[in-house]
From TrEMBL:
The keyword Ion transport does not apply. Keywords: Oxidoreductase. This is NAD(P)H nitroreductase. It comes from Cytobacillus oceanisediminis 2691. It holds the Pfam family Nitroreductase.
Length: 211
């Protein structure tokens, strides 16, 4: 791999900071935001069901709706270009035909493979409990959320993942079916107004065993 590419990617990872104070004059166009979300959505998911769903909160009205649900994160809500609410769709299997048919149309998958996999996946999903499905979806949501933050960084923006908000109220607040859409996290995004600060990570020898 090109050394410049490697170094650029390393800078994206090591240069990322959790930013709580953004430049409120910097906005992100919906076209660029869609590009960031498209890049994030290249993350892997269980049987490629892509259960993640996003609500991009970038309007004055949207932020006013969000503010009382994120009482301890007011600066991020007020100053960021947007806050992205990440949900998982607990009925993501309804998209299985669309996903696998498109894979065949694009030549990514033979039709006979699709014809075997789709019924098998449907059977798997039908036999899963809500908790099993939620656990699977939350893993996928973690993957897409991290990729979203790295994609944002590659576009020159900064982010902050937020877990402290009214998860039991957010679906209703943005007119989503709370029985279907399970909240995962908020991610604020924008241009940092300060440099943030580095955080310590445990050394590899403390977190790894070699067998």
């Amino acid at each position: 791999m090109n050394k410049t590419v490697i170094n650029d990617f390393k800078e994206i990872i090591t240069g990322r900071r959790s930013i709580r104070n953004y430049d409120p004059t910097v906005k992100i166009s919906r076209e660029e935001m869609a590009e960031i979300l498209e890049e994030a959505s290249l993350a892997p998911s269980s049987v490629n069901l892509q259960p993640w769903r996003f609500v991009v909160i970038d309007s004055k009205e949207g932020k006013e709706t969000l503010a009382p649900l994120a009482k301890f994160n007011q600066r991020q809500v007020e100053t960021s270009a947007a806050v992205i609410a990440v949900f998982v769709d607990m009925k993501s299997e309804t998209f299985i035909e669309k996903i696998y048919d498109t894979a065949v149309e694009k030549g990514y998958m033979p039709a006979d493979v699709r014809d075997k996999q789709v019924p098998s996946i449907k059977g798997l999903m039908e036999n899963m409990t809500f908790e099993q499905k939620k656990e699977m979806n939350l893993i996928d949501a973690g993957l897409v959320s991290m990729q979203l933050m790295l994609a944002a960084r590659a576009h020159g923006y900064d982010t902050n993942p937020i877990g402290g908000y009214e998860k039991d109220r957010i679906a209703d607040a943005f007119h989503l079916d709370k029985e279907r859409y399970y909240p995962v996290m908020l991610i604020s995004i924008g241009k940092a107004a300060d440099q943030g600060y580095k955080s310590v990570r445990l050394p590899v020898e403390d977190i790894t065993e070699w067998k």
